[in-house]
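[job 0412] stage=complex_fold ligand=zinc ion status=START
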Amino acid sequence: MMMMKSSSRFWVWLPRYSFSRYQCDYASSSSHSEAPPPPVRVGFTEDAGRGVFATREIRTGDLIHTADPFLTHPSLEALGKGFCEIETTMDWSLYHEHCRVKGLKYPLLVKRFACMVISGMASADNLDILQPAIFSHGMSSTWEEEFELLVHNFKNTDIHPGLLTFLTKEWYSGILARIRANVFRIELIGGYHTDLLAAASASISVETTVGSAVYMLPSMYNHDCDPNAHILWIENAKARLKALRNIEPGEELRICYIDASMDYEARQSLLYQGFGFRCQCLRCKYKD
Ligand SMILES: [Zn+2]
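[job 0412] stage=complex_fold status=DONE, emitting structure tokens
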């Protein structure tokens, strides 16, 4: 997800292999094993940094690609991503209570990621490729409390201290900033609602959504208030990117980060507060 309308040092080293590395695949209707690569590439836009572009013609309604989540909350059977053992065997009551009282959701994803790193399921730098949110002044004292609680919790276990060296304030704030800017709220449109909702309500849930997840390729899509693509979930956290209209080869694919039915002022305000940019899409230029 793009944060700023200017170029950034983070965008220059995006490796091509990142797609396959992060489990994005093109889902064709047939089930043969050699699925073609997704018809998209990550490149640079003129004014919005990194973006996703079509490599061939895409028709209205086409499934452009799917993407498995890198990180989810809550961890659900249906997501295909279970809790790692460290997370299930530790006592998280203080941390969870702190998040619940403060209405925090992102620290739960950071905690999950830390557990994945300690378990060897992920590398501490796996999310570095994503664009971080810019913290406003005064937010640091908020996350420092969670950070201390998290470190305290890990140090109270028999986990080898050598496995915790990545757990610095810099790492924590960097991951939090990336999760904040790139998290998707999963809202299922069909399938196993009851399963997911039961699991969500049994866990920490500060919102009425089914869950939250962080993806790699979907995070590279820029925003447009009149998007040509959208992201949806059917029965689990596998994200599906679909075309809303015909797209020419080379055209940038954009999704809408917010509720597109809001008026111009409301959209501008929400995008600035939530993502830190002023939208300059065609619709916004006409103040529609
Ligand atoms: Zn706009």
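Residues 2-32, 76-80, 191-208 have pLDDT under 50 and may be disordered.
[job 0412] exit 0
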